[in-house]
Design goal:
The complex is a heterodimer of chains A (558) and B (198). Chain A is of the alpha/beta class and 558 residues long. Chain A is built from 16 helices and 17 strands. Chain A has a 6-stranded mixed β-sheet. In chain A, strands 2-8-7-4 form a 4-stranded antiparallel β-sheet, with no helix packed on it. In chain A, strands 11-10-9-12 form a 4-stranded parallel β-sheet, with helices on both faces. Chain B has 198 residues and is mainly alpha-helical. Chain B has 2 domains: 66 residues, Electron transport complex subunit B, putative Fe-S cluster (3-methyladenine DNA Glycosylase II, Chain A, domain 3), CATH 1.10.15.40; 94 residues, Alpha-Beta Plaits, CATH 3.30.70. Helix content of chain B is 40%, strand content 7%. Chain B contains 7 helices and 4 strands, in the order ααααβαβββαα. In chain B, strand 2 and strand 3 form a beta hairpin. In chain B, helix 2 crosses helix 3. Classes of the chains: A alpha/beta (558), B mainly alpha (198). At the A-B interface, helix 13 of A face helix 6 of B.
Chain lengths: 558, 198
């Protein structure tokens, strides 16, 4: 086994893991209804492809991915789609989000599945990735990043190390531990699939040394299925060893660049749960519809359950506890990085690994009470695993100095909560960082929007200006043309007329007619040689006719 | 004596030429300060500041013809940003220009719209779509909420609707307000410390 590296900072925290590993994992009861949020992953929300009232089968795709970074959602059981619309979401805001609600029919009828168990090695990496994408698999460690993207290192990039993350460093959570104990063979088979997709040179399953049984079980599965292909690295128990960047450093000694990804140092990390899901998708064709969830904290019987996505937390907690009425706080995720929820009526989603219940009876849940001023002790900087300066970040976040906070690399903060944990003044440091990050994103968005508005406004002004100029130009041309006509009429120069080819042609034609006439010698008309008297008579008649016409016109007007 | 004068004259000439060359070579096009100020304004183009748009207001600020507190859509954040940029003291928003209100966008009640195009002509960012005697509609993502389309509408079919904050846009609240404010303990220590010092 290769040498391990010790990442900076980190803390030792009480584990409380033993309480939830006393029972084997059971399947949770089939719930009365399932609520599936369309946004269970990082990226664009999925889009429903079923309608209300439609009957769906277990594993049937009910919402498809709308973007490159997105994941489809499948029906966790067979039943009827009863509602598509807003429902309470497992989100720290306590807001509602678009969901698909399914009423199970209890039959658990599977949709037809395609297995690639035998031929996955013959598939090219992109088809294999597509199988994983279509199975809706996202990182089950907590972030929910679509897994198939991670399996695409990009052209010309070689993956040195594939790390399977079985650290599970947060206190209380044991779902990955139980998964490794109970399904080590599935995990190893899944690792082989991912190894094939990535063609990684070295594959390591990293497990913290507080899970000896999991280590044993994984090791024996490797011996059976993949002799010498996969290493097991036993990592000392230090929080947050399970964080991606810390784990990459611990195994390879390489630091992931600021705001970068592990793939930049030739490493890909996948969570244990994700690997098991990949196995089920490739070997059995099953999409991601359930996961192991730890229900722990102040419940009568803390345990792990295999839970269908969309199961309401209240129903789930009721399976481990007689009473759900006196729950004071509910945290989805671990005590260090989890989120307190506003309601029990929320569904579990792909990224929910733990339900932590607080009834206000145990001191470890006492919560934040006295927030004192910062005494500049520097304890936070000592434990920061990224080597940031939490205190500086705190001051600037508090003062909303968003430029400075970024100068101190706020966006490298992984929100692990170490600084928060050791702070003797109990300052909610991570809350400040989350607030500052949100504020920066929001301002950035506003800036982009206002830039767009400026462009549109400037374009409009230019267009109006252009229209005006064009109208003026037209007016000018018209005026000029009129002017020309007038001047032409005024001083008609015969020389000009001759120069004009058109007029010259007309003149020539007239000349020809005259010549023809004279040559034909037509007799003069009878009016040509009249006497003076005759002329007078004609004039008189014309005059009379004119008067007559005028009279008629006048009488017509009257 | 003469050599000293000569040397000084020569130096003056050389530096004069250098400065003259630099002023041509490194001439700054446009008005950088106006651009900078303009980039901080919210670009609603609403005219509440008393100028016919954000750019004219930015020009007025740059020429010290207008104060930095006349932009209600930008509110306090814009005033602070401008104060930072211009190295001035932040001042509260001038109530004559209006009050900082939550963000709104215009929505046309399409069944009432008569297709007069007056709102289209009023919109400073071309966010209204339609043609004469055809129904108009607002392109919501482009609407800045300036309200300039509301007064020209002859049938009053444009409403300003508050933008609803959805789960995707939600942000963590400032812990100062959410966590520290309700603590009685901190309040009392603060007030007693204040008394002791005064």
């Amino acid at each position: 086994m290769k040498k391990l590296f010790r990442f900076p900072g980190g803390i030792e925290v009480p584990q409380y893991k033993e309480i939830s590993i006393t029972q084997a994992t059971k399947k949770a009861k089939l719930p009365a209804r399932l609520v599936l949020p369309l946004h269970q992953h990082i990226g664009a929300p999925a889009e429903p492809i079923v309608a209300e009232g439609e009957i769906v089968l277990k594993g049937q795709k009910i919402a498809h991915a709308t973007d490159y970074v997105s994941a489809p959602i499948h029906a966790p059981t067979s039943g009827t789609v009863s509602y598509i619309g807003d429902r309470e979401a497992p989100h720290p805001s306590g807001m509602r989000a678009p969901c698909i609600e399914i009423i199970p029919d209890g039959k658990e009828t599977w949709v037809e599945l395609t297995s690639h168990a035998r031929d996955y090695t013959a598939l090219d990496p992109s088809s294999l990735r597509n199988v994983i994408r279509e199975a809706g698999i996202v990182g089950l460690g907590g972030a929910g990043f679509p897994s198939y993207i991670k399996l695409n290192p990009g052209p010309g990039r070689e993956i040195e190390t594939l790390i399977i993350n079985g650290i599970e460093c947060e206190p209380y959570i044991t779902c990955d531990d139980m998964l490794m104990r109970e399904r080590a063979d599935e995990i190893v088979a899944g690792v082989l699939v991912i190894q094939h997709a990535l063609q990684a040179k070295r594959t390591v399953i990293a497990i913290e040394d507080n899970k000896p049984e999991a280590i044993e079980s994984v090791k024996s599965a490797i011996k059976q299925l993949a002799e010498d292909l996969i290493d097991v690295a036993v990592i000392p128990t230090i929080y947050p060893a399970g964080s991606e960047k810390q784990l990459v450093y611990a195994i390879t000694g390489e630091e992931v660049p600021s705001e970068g990804l592990p793939v930049q140092v030739g490493v890909v990390c996948q969570n244990i749960g994700t690997v098991a899901a990949v196995y089920r998708a490739v070997h059995h064709g099953e999409p991601l519809i359930s996961r192991y969830v730890t229900i722990t904290g102040d419940v009568d019987s803390p345990q792990n359950l295999e839970v269908l996505f969309g199961t309401i937390v209240e129903e789930l907690v009721a399976q481990c506890s007689d009473n759900v009425q006196d729950i004071k706080r509910l945290i989805i995720g671990g005590p260090m990085m989890g989120f307190a929820m506003h309601s029990l009526n929320i569904p579990l989603i792909k990224t929910s690994n733990c339900v932590l219940v607080d009834r206000g009876r145990h001191s470890q849940f006492s919560g934040r009470e006295h927030i004192m001023p910062c005494i500049r002790c520097g304890a936070c900087a000592q434990v920061c695993p990224i080597k940031l300066l939490p205190q500086q970040l705190y001051w600037y976040a508090k003062a909303e100095d968003l430029d400075q906070v970024q100068n101190y690399n706020l966006f490298d903060c992984i929100e692990c909560g170490c600084c928060d944990y050791v702070c003797p003044s109990h300052i909610p440091l991570v809350q400040y960082y989350r607030f500052a990050k949100g504020e920066i994103w929001q301002r950035e968005e506003e800036r982009l929007k206002s830039d767009k508005a400026r462009l549109r406004h400037e374009f409009r002004e230019r267009r109006i200006e252009r229209d005006k100029q064009e109208a003026e130009e037209r007016r000018r041309l018209k005026k000029e043309a009129l002017h020309k006509k007038a001047t032409n009429a005024e001083n008609k120069d015969p020389a000009d007329e001759k120069n004009d080819p058109k007029k010259a042609a007309i003149l020539a034609a007239m000349e020809r007619v005259r010549e023809k006439k004279s040559s034909q010698k037509i007799n003069p008309k009878n009016t040509d040689n009249l006497s003076k008297k005759q002329h007078q008579l004609i004039d008189e008649i014309d005059e009379r006719r004119k008067r007559q016409r005028q009279d008629e016109q006048q009488s017509g007007v009257d | 004596m003469l050599s000293a004068i000569l040397v000084l004259v020569l130096l003056a000439l050389v530096f004069g030429l250098l400065l003259g060359y630099a002023s041509i070579r490194f001439k700054v096009e446009g008005e950088p300060l106006v651009e900078q100020i303009d980039s901080l304004l919210p670009q609603t183009q609403c005219g509440q500041c008393g100028f016919p748009g954000c750019k004219p207001y930015a020009t007025a600020i740059a020429n010290e013809e207008a104060d930095i507190n006349q932009c209600p859509p930008g509110g306090e954040a814009t005033i602070h940003a401008l104060a930072d940029l211009l190295d001035r003291e932040p001042i509260p928003l001038n109530p004559e220009n209006g009050e900082e209100a939550p963000k709104t966008i215009a929505i046309i009640n399409e069944s009432d719209c008569i297709g007069c195009t007056l709102c289209i002509q009023a919109c400073p960012v071309d966010a209204i779509l339609g043609a004469a005697k055809q129904m108009h509609t607002v392109i919501e993502i482009e609407c800045t909420g300036c309200e300039l389309c509301v007064p020209p509408c002859p049938v009053d079919c444009i409403d300003m609707v508050a933008v609803e904050n959805n789960i995707e846009q939600w942000n963590w609240p400032s812990p100062i307000k959410a966590l520290e404010a309700p603590l009685v303990f901190l309040e009392t220590t603060k007030s007693s410390a204040g008394k002791a010092s005064s």
